[in-house]
Amino acid sequence: MDENIVISIARQYGSGGRTVGKMLAEKLGISFYDKEIIRMASDESGIDLKLFGKVEGGDSVKPSLFTKSTIYRGKLHQPDSKEFISDENIFSYQAKIVNDLAEKESYVIVGRCVNYVMKDRPNTLRVFIHAPWEFRVEQASEKISGSREDIEKFLLKDDKRKQEYYRRFTGGTWNDATNYDLCLNSGKLGFEKCAEAIEAQLKIMFGK
Asked: pTM for the full model?
């Protein structure tokens, strides 16, 4: 049902976007989804979970042989199709899962280009969470071992991966503010205030 609220969160690594998403879901008493989506899409499609991971990681599995564009349009290829395990079909199955979930419940979701997949869906709040470089390095250093140089290389690589993934399946730019309803600097606000800001935006947009 369209009255279900979906909050999609895109985020830079080290900005705490996932933490904010979990906080928000707990505050609102709704579900939180992240990598569970690829397992659900694998279960539904029968496509090996490892292939979903490869596409997400930037390693092409089987690019589409017939379409000029890889941009998501909602089409699903069936098991007898040569494009069944194409990168595009793998993305489309994830999109199907997030759309199916929206029919059943309100939820918060991180990543998966949901801001694009649901760009025309009512009751969808599309959020981008970013942070200053130093803040991201500091946050990342708590999760990644290695020198500062290693961490910085990882962040640059992750930004590039997300840009390429987003461009491939949406045709747009991942960190372009015009693709979102709300952009938040977690380095200045902190995670709790980010969650509060999203709550406030929900009330402004939907009265909820």
From this structure: 0.90
